[in-house]
Design a protein that fits this description.
- The structure is a single chain.
- With 116 residues, the chain is mostly helical.
- Helix content is 60%, strand content 0%.
- It folds into two domains: 3-63, 434 Repressor (Amino-terminal Domain) (Orthogonal Bundle), CATH 1.10.260.40; 85-114, no CATH class.
- The protein has helices at 3-13, 18-25, 29-37, 47-54, 58-63, 85-95, 98-114.
- The protein is elongated.
């Protein structure tokens, strides 16, 4: 099964139209139709938004295998909407210089120690 096959299968399962999927992802309807008719796959820069909209992991979308139980590696990254508090925090952290990042990490460590 290809990536595009998994996308269309998931759309069918969640009863989402290609039009709604297009609107949710910002991917044109013609591009989505092309995946189906030409049996092509989305470009790599579209994978994370597709995963978010379909509520699937990149592992599942790319391979069809879901990391469950204690087998396999746990994901070491997150998919975060840049318009949320967490997204704004990450953007701000990215814009900081090394000194500011170090200070912020010190504050975070101190706050975490207060909870204990």
């Amino acid at each position: 099964m290809t990536i595009s096959d998994r996308i269309f299968e998931k759309l069918k399962q969640i009863k989402m139209s290609q039009k709604d999927f297009s609107e949710a992802t910002g991917i044109s309807q013609s591009t989505i139709s092309e995946w189906k008719s030409k049996k092509t796959n989305p470009t790599s820069e579209k994978i994370l938004i597709i995963c978010k909209v379909l509520d699937v992991t990149p592992e599942w979308l790319l391979s069809g295998i879901e990391n469950t139980g204690e087998r396999g590696n746990n994901s070491e990254w997150y998919i975060i909407d840049k318009n949320t508090d967490m997204g704004i925090l990450i953007k701000s952290f990215h814009e900081m210089d090394e000194y500011q990042r170090g200070r912020l990490m010190g504050y975070i460590e101190a706050l975490n120690n207060l909870k204990r």
